Each structure stands twice: as structure tokens, then as C-alpha cells.
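Can't paste images in this forum, so I'm doing it all in text. The chain is below; anyone willing to post the predicted C-alpha cells underneath?
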Amino acid sequence: MSTNRNIIAVFSTAVIGLALSTGAAAQSGRDYVYIVGSSTVYPFATVVAERFGRGSEFKTPKIESTGSGGGFKLFCDGVGVNYPDITNASRAIKASEVETCAKNGVTEIVEVKIGYDGIVIANAIDSASMMLSRRDIFMALAKKVPGDNAGELVDNPYVTWADVNPVLPAIKIEVLGPPPTSGTRDAFVELAMEGGCTTVPWVKALQKSDENQYKVICHTIREDGAFVEAGENDNLIVQKLQANPHAYGIFGFSFLDQNREKVKGATIDGVAPTFDEIADGEYPVSRPLFFYVKKAHVDVIPGLRGYLREFTSERAWGEEGYLSDRGLIPMPEEERSAVAANVRDLTPLSLVSK
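Text version of the structure:
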């Protein structure tokens, strides 16, 4: 009888331990919020974390800039104190990432849209101003470009910006940009590269007849040195632009906004990258920003609910909030209210493929 009770006790302990490690983010083995993800969202999250840490009894959250893709990988690895509570993202979560999360037990994810950002192509403040079209961007940076005949593709032959468009400066094409793990890279190829790609009629027609080939043409960046992967550190790109007056860099509007004494943004399709133009939807290369939360970690990880409350407060992301001072383009009030309600109620993202 005693043996049976011991077996039952051991079994019960194992079940409780399993529940803690997989269902409720584990025991209080970590006393701070752990965040990974997008380098674009990183400065916004950092400001909120610092404000939250100063104004509450909880520790300041720990934040790592891993890129959106890298953040989703870490986030989806599992539930528990060894895994991040939040991942920041400069793009929406992909269907494949939702599936990976689910396979690893991350089944209730709360999506928090925080506002908007523009992707800029910038150069040093003392360099010549640049006026680009999305077609110019595609022709300058695509791995293969249309040849002389319809349906013909050739390796990108353009060496200077003037080769792409005679009205542009005759300087070597050198663009510093994010790696494939970056949400900024994903958004750039979709909004800027693809936007320019569709100006070629026969390529645009492929979107209906051969979507895979269409994406290969529009989304593949050249690898011959004209485009340089500069990592996830946007501040480093700004430093490199200061050192090289002929180089251009790709990063989020917030970094331009915070470094206006060092760099300036090119106009794209005649529209300058300004707060108002992005907010009005006029700037053609803009995108929403997000972070994602594990519902299982809320109320288990100390301070997590408070951090969510701070980020979605009007003092943070409102039109006059401190995040707009850092370059975040606020959502309309009605949209902010709807997102805040989802966060308050911890409404999970639908697991239907996005």
C-alpha cells in the first residue's frame, strides 16, 4: 500500500512539473521579462522597458536585437522560463512560424500591432540628395533584370546609379542593408523591390501566370557587392554612411528620425520619408510593426502584464506619446483601442494561416 502511495506521489509530482514547464511558463525561475526580435522595434521596446522598470516594482525587461526571423525562431522554440516571453517583429508572423510554434507547444499567441514605420534609403547628411523611384531601386539592386527583349532576364549589369537612370549621380551603387533574417529586409523586397518590378509589364503578368518565378525575379537581391549585408545593427549602418559619402543604407524611419544630424532620406516616387507622409499613407515604402506575446507566460513571469499595459497606454503609443517622439507612427485612435482591448483580454491570434 505504501509502495502504491509512493508511486502515486511520484507520478503526481511529474505531472505537476510537466504542467509548470509546458502550460504555464514554469515556476518563478525568472523574475524579469525576456524579449527578442526586430532591430526596428528594439528602440521602441527599450524605451518602454526603461520607463516600466523605473515606474514599477518589477525589474527592467531584458531585450535582445536578433532580427524578426531570429526572434520568431527563439520565440517558437517552446514555453517556459528558458524561452522568450515576447518577440518584436517588423512584419507579421508567417504561417510557417505559427505552425512551428504550435509544434513546440506555443499555441496561444497574442499579436500586438504597435504602429507604423517607413523604410528609408539614406545617405550622409553632407552628400547629394537622392530622388529615386521604386523602379530605380529594383533595377539597381535586383540580381537579374529585364533584358532588351520581353521575357529576357540578364545578370544585373548596372555599376553606377547613372547606369540605372541617367538623371541619377554617376557614382558606384553601394547599398548597406539588412540580412535575410530581418523583417526590414522582407518588407523592403516586398514594398520597394516588388513595387519597382511591377513597372515591367511582362514581369507583372507573371504574378498571375507563374507566381514563383515572379517572386524570384522581384525579391532576389544581387550578390556581386552592390548590396552589402550589414547585419541587424542599424546604428552601425549610420556610422558607415558617415564614413562613406557615396554609400546608401536601408533602415527604419525611426533611425533616420533619431539621426537627422548625420543622415538624410531619399525621396521615393516623389515622396519624402517624413512622419506625416508615412502617417497619411503617402510614402510608398511603409509597413506596420508588431510584437507577439505568449499567453501562457502572462501572470507567471513577473511584470509581463504590466509591461503590456505600459506599451499599450496612450502615454506610450498615443499620438502625443513618448514613442512618437522616437519615430513611431501611431495608429488611429480606433485601431489603438481595438488592439489595447485584445491585449487586455489576451485574445489569441487565430492559428489560421496568415
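Residues 2-116+288-345 form a domain with the D-Maltodextrin-Binding Protein; domain 2 fold (CATH 3.40.190.10). The radius of gyration is 23 Å.
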